[in-house]
Structures are given as structure tokens and as C-alpha cells.
Amino acid sequence: MINVLIVDDHSLVRSGIARILNDVPDIKVVGEAESGEDALRQVSLIRPDVVLMDANMPGIGGLEASRKLLHNHPDIKILVVTVYGDGPIPMRFLEAGVSGYLTKGCSAEEIVTAVMEVYAGRHYLGREVSQHLAMSMVTGIPENPFSKLSQRELQVMIMVIHGYKISEISDSLCLSPKTISTYRCRSFEKLGVRNDAMLAKLALEYGLVDTVPQQAPTPAQ
Questions:
Q1: Which of the ends of the chain has fewer CB neighbours closer than 10 A, N or C?
Q2: Distance in angstroms (rounded) separating the CA atoms of residues 83 and 7
Q3: How far, in Å, CA of 28 to CA of 45, rounded?
Q4: pLDDT tens digit sequence for 133-143
Q5: 162-171 long-range CB contacts below 8 Å, 24 or more apart?
Q6: Distance of CA 131 to CAs 66, 134, 152, Å?
Q7: DSSP string spanning 52-119?
Q8: Could you tell me which CATH number the domain at 2-138 has?
Q9: Distances (CA, A) of 13 to 7, 17, 26, 34, 191
Q10: How many CB atoms are located within 10 Å of the residue 221 CB?
Q11: pLDDT given for residue 131 in this prediction
């Protein structure tokens, strides 16, 4: 039996994926989480075999949650299921060590196949993601300005876009405020933006986020 934890901030998405997976005899959804912080807590409690991880969530988000999970639980398999099929997000997740990556436009059959593949110790990339990664390797030119950022810089920028203050990002990522400020300044320089409003506009233009919250939610403790 493959025990799966579903991590997504939309309950409807979690319910839909759970129905798909629970219909498969060899797969059982043992838990659901609505944030990266929640995923860290639940994995420690229920020890799933495979984690289905969304990318864009409040708080630390899927990228930082994946990095921390793989650091704390090296044997766990993480399969990213998100809307981002291109840009810097897929590569950053793969660099973090996830086992698979799908977009939410994939079929129910492909989700099942991907879960079984990563559980068996193999890697799985959806067709759309594979095509975009192959094209970026052929051209050698990043089409998305956010591709210039390191994994940590991208994580900080995502949280800035969502309205988190330097102190809140510092607490969530367990880094000093000075370090977060350095990441912020360096990322702004790479992106050619001068303030948070310009950053948000650029993120929307390149599909890094779907919407920009007016006010950040309180980070989970």
C-alpha cells in the first residue's frame, strides 16, 4: 500500500485528487495539508510514502517545504502537482530533489502513474514540463527573468510578493532579517525592479503568481 499525503491550499483540489487516488487499490490517502508548514507537521506524524505538493501556497510555500522535508526525511518521495509548467519553478523544485513534477492539467491516469513511479524510486516528469525544460536547454536562454534567481532568492521573492514582512520571512525560513534583506536587495537588482509594486507586476506578467494578496496571512507557528 502506497500512503499519500496531499498538500494544497485549496480544499476542492485536495478532495478531487484524494478521490482519484483512493479509487486505486494500491494507494491510500492518509492525510491532507493546506500549507507547507502543515505538511512538515503531518509528515512527522503520519510518515507517508509519497507527498503530493503544490507550489504556490501561503507561508513558506511548496518549494521551501519540499527542501525541508527532504532534509529531514531523505527517503520521502515528493511529487509536485501545480499550475506552473514553465519558468523557473520546475527547475528549482528538481534542484531541491523532488522525485516528480506534474501540472494540474494532467489526466487522472497520469497522476496515478506518477505516484507509482516515484514510489518505486524512479523520477517522473509530465509531458508539458519535459518539453519546456528541453526547450530551455536547447536555447540556453532563460525566457523568464525569475530564472536568474537562486532557489533561496526565488523563495524570498515569492513571500515578498505575497505581502510578508522581512521579519515574518525571517521567522518562517529560520534566517536572520539581515540575510533576508540581502536576498531581497540582490533579487531586486537581478530582476531590475525598485520596489514591491514593480516586483508584483513582474510576477503577474510572467505567471509566477495568479494573484497578489493585499495583506499576507499570519504565518503558521
A1: C
A2: 14
A3: 16
A4: 776 666 555 56
A5: 162/58, 162/209, 162/212, 162/213, 162/216, 163/212, 163/213, 163/214, 163/215, 163/216, 164/216, 164/219, 165/216, 168/216, 168/219, 171/219
A6: 23, 5, 25
A7: EE-SS-STTHHHHHHHHHHHH-TT-EEEEEES--SSSHHHHHHHHT-SEEEETTS-HHHHHHHHHHHH
A8: 3.40.50.2300
A9: 9, 6, 21, 10, 32
A10: 6
A11: 73
Rounded Cα–Cα distance for residues 194 and 109 (Å) = 45
- C-alpha 53/C-alpha 7 separation (Å) is 5
Are 48 and 73 in contact by the 8 Å Cβ rule? The answer is no
Q: Please state at what angle helix 89-96 crosses helix 151-161, rounded to 10 degrees.
A: 130
Interval 33-77: pLDDT, tens: 999 999 999 999 999 999 999 998 888 999 999 999 999 999 999
> Average of pLDDT values for 25-40?
96
User: Hey, where are the domains in the chain?
Assistant: 2-138, 145-205
Q: Is the dihedral of CA 207, 211, 215, 217 positive or negative?
A: negative
Model-level pTM? 0.82
Cβ atoms of 78 and 85 closer than 8 Å: no
Q: What is the pLDDT of residue 86?
A: 76
**180-206 b/e (C-beta count within 10 Å ≥ 16 → b):** beebbeebbebbebeeeeebbebbeeb
Written out in words, the top-level CATH class of the domain with range 145-205 is: mainly alpha
